[in-house]
Amino acid sequence: MRYHDLNKSNTVLIVTDFIVALIVFALGLNLAEVYYSEKTPRFGESFHFVQLFLFSSTLQIATLAVGLYNEKLRATYKGVAIRIMVAIGLAYIMSSFIYLLIPVSSFPALLCELLYLLAAVGLLISRKIALSTNYTNLNRRRVVVLGAGERAGLINSCMKRRADRVNFDLIGYIPVSGDSIKVTTTVPRIETSISLEDYIIDNQIEEIIIGADERRGNLPTDMLFSCKMKGVLITDIIDFIERETGQIAVSHINPSWVIYNVRSSKDLVGRFANWVFNCFISSIVLLLTWPLLLVAMLLIKLEDGFSSPVFYSQQRVGKQGKVFSIYKFRSMQVNAEENGAQMSFKTDKRITKVGAFLRKYRIDELPQLYNVIKGDMSFVGPRPERPEFCQQFDGSIPYYSQRHDVKPGLTGWAQLKYPYGDSLDDAIEKLKFDLYYIKHRSFMLDVLILIRTSEIILFGKGR
What we know:
Elements: H1 8-32, H2 47-65, H3 77-101, H4 111-132, E1 141-146, H5 154-158, E2 168-174, H6 196-202, E3 207-210, H7 221-229, E4 233-236, H8 237-245, H9 255-261, H10 268-304, E5 311-317, E6 323-329, H11 353-360, H12 369-374, E7 378-380, H13 387-396, E8 409-411, H14 413-417, H15 424-440, H16 443-458
Parallel strand pairs: 1-2, 1-3, 3-4, 7-8
Antiparallel strand pairs: 5-6
Helix pairs in contact: 1-2, 1-4, 2-3, 2-16, 3-4, 6-7, 10-11
């Protein structure tokens, strides 16, 4: 089973990185004893448990932030090495910031730098070993799909890339009475002369995906029950896709899914705590980025003239359909919508040169911190859409209005999982991820999304 993006293979990476941090910590202190024999307590004394926690936690948070725990990361070892060095820099900055805020005895001069240098070497070596051993195979399961029709074809449509199937080997499809269109795939249809139960056991199948188009009277319930008793996992195809991709198959769910899976958000204490958390994060981000705000304003003025506006506001749809004004740095030409509302797209000629840079690194979104503090938005949630487009999407996309059950956000699950989109099809794809977030939203998931958003900003994946 998975907890969002956590599974066996990246759990191994997390544990390995902690072991690297522990070894580096012990090695660094032993080396330091030569120069700081009187100033540095020996490794294992109580003083170092706090130091070890700060060192390892900042290192692993930074590693998560640059995407190195993403098993679907498509990068060469050179790309991984670059991310490791960025993570080391982030961890060093975070630990330095913590030492300024918390009255904890810091390391002697240059010892902290030595530890992070050794950590960089240790992580480079451990990731090289991990990549050479193809560690993702640790999590692979042998699965078959019970069904070979339209519903079973969701695996092909939702998980087209090889990177989408790193957690399982699809052995084949088992045809079932009532299947509509036969699935077209290079994966074979399973036709066997022995019983399905014997086939499952003989071929060491670990999971059966229920993908039949018509279940009533067509599923071999006795066989499924027997396999379940033997330890084979039985999973509905909608749950399987949700688990493996972090999205909901919108076109194949029914109203009961919404009734049983969308949580109520009427808890007054919870909403207040969420607002306090969002205000706290906004204050920290504003404290860290205020120089960027000034630079952005200056660049916009230099490009378009000092009489040109720096900010712009736009109507967006928030929680429960309430319309509010969103604030952003202006990234398009003045009067970009003089001919009416237009959806922005990737190669939009209305975007200025400075605006393209601001969008790439999400700097144009920083004025929305005001919206977060005001309570119109959260830090994490579905991106707010314009009323004109909401009306269009609501009439064309099933369950689109469900994304308004929560506050919109500066960043979200869809922004992590899906690239920039500018069409109806893209809106459908993003809704799949938004519904996953709405179903699973929690404080820990919000923290995970916030940390992983750093990868989008640091490597310029915004639009």
